[in-house]
Amino acid sequence: VKAHAHMTVKKGDVLVKIDPRPFELAVARAGAELDATRQEVRSLLATLKEARVELAEAKDRATYYRKRFERQIKLAKRGIIPYTRHDELENDANAADDRVTMVRQKIQRLMTTLGGDPDLPVDDHPLVRAKISALEQARLDLERTAVKAPADGTVVTVPLVPGEQVTAAEP
After folding, report:
1. What pTM was computed for the model?
2. How far apart are CA 26 and CA 39, in angstroms?
3. Taken in order 115, 108, 118, 46, is the CA torsion positive or negative?
4. Which residue, of 34, 94, 117, 120, is most buried by count of CB atoms within 10 Å of its CB?
5. 3-state DSSP call for residue 171?
6. Are 100 and 62 contacting, i.e. CB atoms less than 8 angstroms apart?
7. Cβ contacts of residue 95 below 8 Å, gap of 6+?
8. Mean pLDDT by 10 residues, the chain (171 residues)
């Protein structure tokens, strides 16, 4: 407590200083969480790119297996080859189609996690915006550890003593 009764103060003079260490730690923690979230978004974007390539490959593979299966059916109907491989080829075609569906679902999950727009700058993604807000709040809380005079004047009374415990939002 820097102020005392009947003390003359100027606007901005520090009247009371609260221990800033817990608030400094909160700023550091919020900064680290923001960095981690930015990295997480970058990682999700990289995974999305990989999944799009994976989808193209899966579609090509599905097209190949489906055509191969259909050719075998035509040849078997004409009696050129036996039906013995029918189930195996149909299973291959169905598995390739299922792979396309799974990769599409993976892309949808990634898009949802990225807030629906992967082209946004990293700091505009909802996950990052939430962490930026938390960091700004922690900085504001740290700034408020110094209670300053709102105007020039004289301190009438100081109801605090050094070491006294105060609660946030208590008048």
Report:
1. 0.70
2. 20
3. positive
4. 34
5. coil
6. yes
7. 65
8. 74 86 96 97 96 97 95 84 80 96 97 89 92 96 88 78 64 43
